[in-house]
Amino acid sequence: MELNLIFKIIFIICVVITSYAIFRNLDIIKIILIYFKHKLLGK
Asked: Which residues are CB-neighbours of 29 under 8 A, at least 6 positions away?
């Protein structure tokens, strides 16, 4: 039961960190998505 709680806490922390990283790096993510789109459509 405690292990389940620990996993939930770790999951929530990971979600928060990921959300913060995405919020901070939206421009970088857009550039990466554009790059992948060009790579996929270019072939």
From this structure: 22
- pLDDT score of 43 more than 70: no
CB atoms within 10 A of CB 12: 10
For the chain, the first-to-last Cα distance in angstroms comes to 50
Report the alpha-carbon distance of residue 15 to residue 21 in Å, rounded: 10
Helices 2-24 and 26-42: angle between axes, nearest 10 degrees: 80
What is the mean pLDDT of the segment spanning 4-19? 94
